[in-house]
Sequence to fold (180 residues):
Amino acid sequence: MRRYFSALVLALLAATVVAVPAQAHAELKSSNPASGAALNAPPQQIELTFSDVISLPDGDAVTVTGPDGAKWPVTQTHAADRTITAKVDAAAAKAGAHTLEWRATADDGDVISGKFTFSLNVAAPTSEAPTSSVTMSAPVSNAPPATTPAESGGVPAWLWVVVGLIAVVGAILLVRRRKT
Fold:
């Protein structure tokens, strides 16, 4: 019996040594506008840079919601390598806190998402007001923003290997025990 227990322990140890570590998902590394930025003018474009290659998910990749709950129109959303860019029409932007929500598909196929806030110190210019040809750009932050962890949607493969090994060793022990 001691011999079988030793075999079981060795099999479990081998399974955990051989197990492949979980792949990390892409993370948002920087954004323009930056998380927590205070802007003097509404951004014309959103830029999200990730730690790994990403693609656009099904549905909206970028949404911007104003302090009154109104969503900004987002157009021309593109993903290239590690960056998502989107044009925004901030004509209806108002002073106050705005929420930028994003979604992206990681290289392994899982959808990752998150959100952060930035604020506008002044409302967007109206069509009656003269507009400046200078566009203010928000500072880019390298600090990780508050993100919502993505659901993995499944059990890791290494856990299935361990469960399978336990079942095989258990079956062998059961068969041998009945023979004696």
Remarks:
- The chain has a mean pLDDT of 77.
- The first helix runs from residue 2 to 18.
- The two ends are 11 Å apart (CA to CA).
- The longest strand covers residues 96-106.
